Amino acid sequence: MADRIVAPKSDIARVSHVSSFAQYERLYQAALTDPAQFWSECAQRVTWFHPFDCVTSQNFAKAEVAWFLGGKLNASFNCVDRHLATRGDQTAVLWVGDEPGTYRHISYRELHEQVCRLANVLRAYGVNKGDRVCIYLPMIPDAVYAMLACARIGAVHSVVFAGFSAQSLRDRIVDADCRVVLTANEGMRGGKTIPLKQTVDEAIANLPVHTVLVSQRTEAMVPMRVGRDRWLADEMPKQRAYCPVEWMDSEDALFVLYTSGSTGKPKGQLHTTGGYLVYAAYTHELVFDWRPGDIHFCAADVGWVTGHSYIVYGPLCNGATTVLFESTPLYPDASRYWQVIDDIQATIFYTAPTALRALLRFGDEPVKKYQRTSLRVLGSVGEPINPEVWQWYHDVVGDKRCAVVDTWWQTETGGILISALPGATPCKPGSATFPLPGVQPVLVDEQGKELLGNGVSGNLCLASSWPGQARTILNDHARFQQTYFAMYPGLYFTGDGCRRDEDGYYWITGRVDDVLNVAGHRLGTAEIESALVSHAYCAEAAVVGFPHELKGQGIYAYVIAGKSADGVSTADIVAALKQAVRKVISPIATPDRIQVVAGLPKTRSGKIMRRILRKIAEGNYGELGDITTLAEPAVVEQIVQGHQAAKWPTG
Ligand code: 7RM
């Protein structure tokens, strides 16, 4: 069956940066034919204190890449200072507080002052170029000031999501050897307070952290250790409102950001200054079709790479107005996003499918209560977006008027690699569509043989570097080389599976560790999940494999029942969902076991922890590993009980 194609809107195309598919193809070819020329031009979007003399040097065998060698620049200067002459009074950061109706506009001029003061505070407490600084802050303006203050003086920030436990925070502080930590007395989210300072105190016990700088987000009193802990509000006014910028080498470190792998300790992805900044700015402009006057609302947290690239560095480097959203999609109700969008007249909105699925359960009414007429571009990131959810985003949220861009990328890639472009790309709902100009995806089979042509599925690799690529794993280059460059020599391996369909569209099928082989058939767990979710009885699904005597692997589905399943027996839900998968994919994809659950184990960024679900499906309750980083650790116990109660046959 041919996929539905959603054509770009003509009124978006008329004014967009890339305004036809033919133009995209020309750009793509130009980048392929002369990459040095292409990236060299692209790099002119940032201000260099000293020009680079070599565009790139790449050696995938050694996992060594570098961009814009010899160039000198400063990310803080690019995101703040250079806009002062033309945009000093424009809002740089539009803070949306947790309590509905709380807004604060921070102009580029004010941003400059605050970043300078904070940079001087850091200097006063002994932070030098190359030192790592841990940022454990909620979604408040100080978080943005802190990142840019580090960048200003050449310190390397390590932002740790302010929902991580003390142990996770401690591991990251130790790994990066941070001596200074920024935090807040408490965070505010969804009407609840989060004891951040208390968590920091616990995390740094007996570590050589000498300074803790504390923002005051709430009225709460917290213990302050004399000689170590200081209120930012006391320190910043003491400092000058100007701080000179450090001239950074293009390949000097900008930040480290931890990502959890499937096993062991988190990997500190190291990004460098020139390549990362150029790539964040380039992709922000192209993919979101940014132009002056836009209000860019990325609903991610600065603790994730999406917040780094598309709240802070990309938008601010381009001189945009960027939104910092402290709350949640469901506070105080399922209308919050749309209410904020109307209040601030956001033109670009970027969120994750997991948030959209949660909202879809409430139907169209909470969306339609608001106008949303300011919106032009809607983005999705973090996981495959199922076609049904894509369509809802497009039809209901975007009123069939807005461009929807499904953006594929990773912490390791620094910015978006595969995505539709508003105004240029005909979309197939559920497909991330095509690589950006300058990006060369390659699909390989298990043996590493490149799969040429269309209508093929394999492991997604990249044939050459792009400026935003992570340069190493902090303190562990061997692991970096091993994880990404050893599997398929000469290629960067993403860890994702992918299909390039008959028309050349890319469909990310999920992590390859999630690919099932059922009776010799390769099936993507995301595919099965999408089929389950297509039935009204299913609000959300997570599929894993389990050892099966006859088929090698069996299919185990954990499902959250939808509203329409109210009053329906579990047996009937299970039967209906099996039938749905048969119908949508094939009888070979029918789940062997379906367990109806109340919740799924997710990381705070909304990714389902399949590792845990696989262990439960296997009956290995004793090997669940660390579950402290989950959003709601209690769901694991419930799922285990449900699995036991189901009394599945063993062997
Ligand atoms: C930005 C981010 C990376 C992993 C990646 C994929 C999955 C991300 C999409 C997606 C399908 C997408 N960084 N992923 N975006 N899968 N479609 N548009 O999420 O490092 O936290 O995760 O997320 O598996 O490898 S991340």
Can you characterise this structure?
- This protein is α/β, with parallel strands linked by helices and 651 residues long.
- The protein has a domain of 128 residues: GMP Synthetase, Chain A, domain 3 (2-Layer Sandwich), CATH 3.30.300.
- Helices cover 31% and strands 23% of the residues.
- It has an eight-stranded mixed beta sheet with strand order 12-11-8-6-7-14-15-23, with helices on both faces. A seven-stranded mixed beta sheet has the order 5-4-17-16-18-19-20, with helices on both faces. A four-stranded antiparallel beta sheet has the order 21-22-24-25.
- α8 crosses α9 and α11 packs across α12.
- The longest helix is centred in the N-terminal third of the chain and has 17 residues.
- The protein is globular.
- The chain starts with 9 loop residues before the first helix and ends in a 5-residue tail after the last helix.
- The model has no long low-confidence stretch (mean pLDDT 94).
- Bound molecules: 5'-O-(acetylsulfamoyl)adenosine (7RM).
- 5'-O-(acetylsulfamoyl)adenosine (7RM) binds next to α12, β20, β24 and β25.
